[in-house]
Design brief:
There is one protein chain. With 307 residues, the protein is of the alpha/beta class. The chain contains twelve helices and ten strands. The structure holds FE2/S2 (inorganic) cluster and zinc ion (ZN) (2 copies).
Amino acid sequence: MKCKKCRHDAVIDMRHHNLALCKEHYLEWMVLQTERSICKFGMFSHDERLLVAVSGGKDSLSLWDILWKLGYAVDGLYLDLGIDEEEPYSRQSGEYARQFAAQRGLHLQVIDIQQEYGESIPEMGRRTKRGHTKPCSQCGLVKRYLLNKQALEGGYDAIVTAHNLDDEAAFLFSNLTHWSLQYLGRQRPLLPATSGFARKAKPFCQFYERECAAYAILNGIQYIYHECPYAEGSKQLRNKSLLNQMEDQQTGFKTQFYLGYLRALEQGIFPQSQEDAGVLEKKRCHRCGQPTQSAGLCTFCRLVTGK
Ligand code: FES
Ligand code: ZN
Ligand code: ZN
């Protein structure tokens, strides 16, 4: 297998693009394609300040690396979830994130959930339970809330997350099987800012997961290899494996699936919710002032105060 550009030995074969590349040209290609996605979807510009959500995994560290190489003004936010009971998952991912930032002289904000709110994510999950044994929904809520809060308070122009095509295709599959029109309208590569909510962008939405992993490995980026211990057996992972089976049978399946969704969005098949269009008048949380659907406290404040 030879690199399509220079005929040296290729390190990766992207059959869905019919493209094999050597290390040098692959790394160059990833950077270029990221910039293309940013421009194609009008995500952000070089004079804006960005906040990237860093988990310590291959996707977020690769994204931060590429945005930094492209010259964007980008800080990182790492949320220490305190998932360390069975294995030191949070501790290790935090170390990788800190090490990455220090090596490049980048600014990483760290919020320790346990220190800040008195409980780790597994503890919050156990306290609230609601019939679930895993704390994933509480974790998702805390992450979304704090990311938005930090972006607004820090005066950032956009939040950037490293969702890749495998993530997006798996969400899409789940949302389609449930016909969750509200979520289907929100799963855009770019969600503009609305009152109380920062702009959100996903520049990696067209990369396969293995492409992000290859970028991290070829760049010598150290990252947490394991998934969160609570992800095991999750619907998201099951959907990913299903879509990978489809990809094995039909090269480019995941890309076609996702690109079809983007076309449907352009045609207005999944319209923006009133909420995203900023039409809906929201109430404000009594405790934190963030927008909320219901009167009184927002869901985050209810979670952390136990009310
Ligand atoms: Fe949040 Fe697993 S429960 S990352
Ligand atoms: Zn080459
Ligand atoms: Zn609140």
